[in-house]
Amino acid sequence: MSVSIAGRADWLTDKHLQRLLAALAEGGEEARVAGGAVRNTLMGQPVADIDIATTCLPQETIRRAEAAGFKAVPTGIEHGTITVVAGGKPYEITTLRADIETDGRRAKVSFGRDWKLDAERRDFTINALYAEADGRVVDLVGGIADIEARRLRFIGDPEARIREDYLRILRFFRFFAWYGDGRPDAEGLKACARLKEGLAQLSAERIWSELKKLLSAPDPSRALLWMRQASVLTAALPESEKWGIDAIHGLTRAEKDLGWTPDPLLRLEAIVPPDAARMKTLAERLKFSTAEADRLRHWALATAVEPKTTEGELAKRLYRGDRQGFVDRLRLSLAGARARAVEDTDALLEAGGFSRLLAFAVKWEKPLFPLKGADLTALGAIPGPKLGEILRNLEAEWVEAGFASDRGALLERAAEALKAG
């Protein structure tokens, strides 16, 4: 069956890409676009990165790219990968290769000229498609049929593919979340379940990067369910064990209904317990960024908000805590109430309350306390612990009064406090 992406791939008509492909194909060599760009075009999805496979050896790739006027950077030359910047866009160009030795994390490769061997070393059939410069698709592993069926399938023996790189266990569920329909491939699922202990060999950064991509899928709930069934979710994210993933279904529905942007951190919070100590351990283990770790911690520390809470009371809690933490809490509460409202009319009222409070929290801006230490020293206070205590007490009174006391009234209270000793 002959398939072409010509006419469907605007990116393929880019003159710089065409010139690069032509340069790499001179003198009997070959070059084709490979992997995700071909897959996504066939599935009608956006194309972000464009990778190229070539029979040229890495140094020859550099020579040809530079001779064509492009910048070449040896980003992974030991594995045959050169990044070429053409027309302001980066293209990752890799020499055809075969794995000759693997340890479950990285591989030693040998370069070659056999397109079928290059395809067979890849992970899934839908990722092993190539496209010629004219758009004709080259399928050596049955990827087109799997794309048409929205079926995710390992190339060859699933266990062999996984043992080459245990990250492929998580990639199986991530690609299923993005591209799969129905049930996951049975043999692939069994292999992931059998070899899940191999995840312990992977770096924390690789695990979190893969989980974050999975949690960014339009609807990761089915993939998470199968991960739980195969005990892979517990192996990768033990904090989710005994907590449950039911909330993720209601969250993804709320995102679609309310126009929320899919948020991997919020989705993570939906499947782990709001326990600050455990979230600190999780963030350290998976090497979260500082911003990610802080957000998870603030969410865990934010106390639950009841749907009948007033805006004034919520404002006090927002002032004392972290707004994003409370926004996350309220979003999850709203999603949960909406999910329950299908069978529980009381939950519909709760959803209304959470919606009201969420709208308030999102727009809320933290007021500035009108007094500083210098204001008290101007009244005769001596710098030290006592001054700090008075200032904190005044701020607490100001918050409890709904931030209503103005600077003049607060200065009067400060003078009274100082006079009282």
Automatic annotation (TrEMBL):
Stretches assigned to the Poly A polymerase head domain: 31-153
Domain tRNA nucleotidyltransferase/poly(A) polymerase RNA and SrmB- binding: 188-240
Superkingdom: Bacteria
Keywords, ordered alphabetically: Magnesium, Metal-binding, Nucleotide-binding, Nucleotidyltransferase, RNA-binding, Transferase, tRNA processing
Cofactors: Mg(2+)
InterPro entries found in the cross-reference section: Bact_CCA-adding_enz_type3_sf (IPR050264), NT_sf (IPR043519), PolA_pol_head_dom (IPR002646), PolyA_RNA-bd (IPR032828)
Family: Belongs to the tRNA nucleotidyltransferase/poly(A) polymerase family.
Protein name per its UniProtKB record: CCA tRNA nucleotidyltransferase
Source organism per UniProt: Mesorhizobium cantuariense
Lineage: Bacteria, Pseudomonadati, Pseudomonadota, Alphaproteobacteria, Hyphomicrobiales
